[in-house]
Amino acid sequence: MTDLPPPPVKGCREAPVLREFGQREVFCGLTGIIWLHRKMQDAFFLVVGSRTCAHLLQSAAGVMIFAEPRFGTALLEEKDLAGLADANAELDREVDRLLARRPDIRQLFLVGSCPSEVIKLDLERAAERLNTRHAPKVRVASYTGAGTDTTFTQGEDTCLAALVPELDKTDARELVLVGALPDVVEDQALALLNAMGIGPVRSLPARRLEDMPAIGPNTVFALTQPFLGETHGQLIRRGARHIAAPFPFGEEGTTRWLRAIADEFGVPDDLFEKVTAAPRARARKAVAAHAEDLRGKSIFFLPDSQLEPALARFLTRECGMTAVEVGTPFLHRGIMGPDLDLLAEGPVLSEGQDVDRQLDRVRAARPDLTVCGLGLANPLEAEGLTTKWAIELVFSPVHFYEQAGDLASLFARPLNRKRLLKLEAAE
């Protein structure tokens, strides 16, 4: 077995959880389109929503709607919302125009920006109708990205969960990596697995429709993102089996994630060591370059992305930080359990959000670093608290060995900035 630090005497898997039910401060699930449309190269995401939704995507993506080639908004006017127009007929016309203009589209996602009761349109039925109409050239699916139904990263989860029931069946023994990763990061993971002789390996989502995995009773899957609870459930219902492991953040998380897959496929210890030794050493060195700035510092996670437990594990075990509170929108123990096993007892675990109460706890604790959403960062900075934008941890390449140092640096930078500002003020 590869040498790894032992788990803590007592982890947080069975720790009590403070459940919050109050005002939330999170990004809308529609923002998942920003990274999904880059990953799925022959897909188009058509948001069925209002001008507010169009402005959100425009602002969040930094481009004009339709200026980026593979997402856009079908605007609902007042007569649509009032139920005075045949929204289905209008949607069909919009989709026909889009597909005629863009013959390269192989996957079309109808993305609801509001519950069906609000937009007066059942997108699931619409997708079924349009799928029959445009198959087999185009596969049409639907999911919700409504901010009232989903948190920031759940847009990806609902998208992938919508794909699973339509995936082909197979009896082959295959590994599926689940979760959208930047291509360069995914390629690193595939190269490590291939060097161990593990395969065939598929990805969900795949870059193109023809590369989508098939699922069956001999399929095993490993999650690369912690926020895929619905997709996890859909895959299990299809008969696939989950390989539970800590998430591949940092040197230890990546090694334990790879080790769990290697054990599943019977990879010998000496081969595992040969494949991982060099990248592990690089990861340790890269993390150590930033750990000195983080060691002994306290950190408070407000709930945002569901990455929080895995990141807390990385920062406490590999960077020497102390977690005061680890808040997450949803705490799925079946998915996050291996990371909670490695997170030593001590921090408060909270699930859900009540902004006012959580901000009171932040102010009482005065942590060295608070990880939070964009809407809370500036007010906390104005109070003298140092913050880290949670959204940056989703948009930045942070998985696996080669990105371990970059992940540590994302937390070190705001602390270093504050230190430099103090030095300048003293001068």
Helix and strand arrangement:
Layout lengths: L16 E5 L11 H7 L3 E7 L1 H11 L9 E5 L2 H4 L5 H15 L5 E6 L3 H4 L3 H12 L4 E6 L9 H10 L10 E5 L4 H13 L5 E4 L14 E5 L5 H9 L3 E2 L7 H15 L4 H26 L3 E4 L6 H11 L3 E7 L4 H10 L5 E6 L1 H11 L3 E4 L1 H9 L4 E3 H6 L8 H23 L1
Parallel strand pairs: 1-12, 2-3, 2-4, 4-5, 6-7, 6-8, 8-9, 10-11, 10-13, 11-12, 13-14
Describe the structure.
With 427 residues, the protein is α/β, with parallel strands linked by helices. It has three domains: 17-24 and 287-426, Nitrogenase molybdenum iron protein domain (Rossmann fold, 3-Layer(aba) Sandwich); 29-150, Nitrogenase molybdenum iron protein domain (Rossmann fold), CATH 3.40.50; 174-264, Rossmann fold (3-Layer(aba) Sandwich). It has 17 helices and 14 strands. It has helices spanning 33-39, 51-61, 78-81, 87-101, 116-119, 123-134, 154-163, 183-195, 229-237, 250-264, 269-294, 308-318, 333-342, 355-365, 374-382, 390-395, 404-426; strands at 17-21, 43-49, 71-75, 107-112, 139-144, 174-178, 201-204, 219-223, 241-242, 298-301, 322-328, 348-353, 369-372, 387-389. The strands form three sheets. A six-stranded parallel sheet has the order 1-12-11-10-13-14, with helices on both faces. Strands 3-2-4-5 form a four-stranded parallel sheet, with helices on both faces. Strands 7-6-8-9 form a four-stranded parallel sheet, sandwiched between helices. Strand 11 (322-328), helix 13 and strand 12 (348-353) form a beta-alpha-beta unit. Helix 10 runs antiparallel to helix 11 (269-294), helix 11 packs parallel to helix 17 (404-426) and helix 12 runs parallel beside helix 13. It starts with 16 loop residues before the first strand and ends with a helix. The relative contact order is 0.13. The model is unreliable at 63-68 and 78-84 (pLDDT under 50). Pathway: Porphyrin-containing compound metabolism; bacteriochlorophyll biosynthesis (light-independent). It catalyses: chlorophyllide a + oxidized 2[4Fe-4S]-[ferredoxin] + 2 ADP + 2 phosphate = protochlorophyllide a + reduced 2[4Fe-4S]-[ferredoxin] + 2 ATP + 2 H2O. It comes from Phaeovulum vinaykumarii. Protochlorophyllide reductase is composed of three subunits; BchL, BchN and BchB. Forms a heterotetramer of two BchB and two BchN subunits. GO terms for molecular function: 4 iron, 4 sulfur cluster binding; ATP binding; metal ion binding; oxidoreductase activity, acting on iron-sulfur proteins as donors; oxidoreductase activity, acting on the CH-CH group of donors, iron-sulfur protein as acceptor.
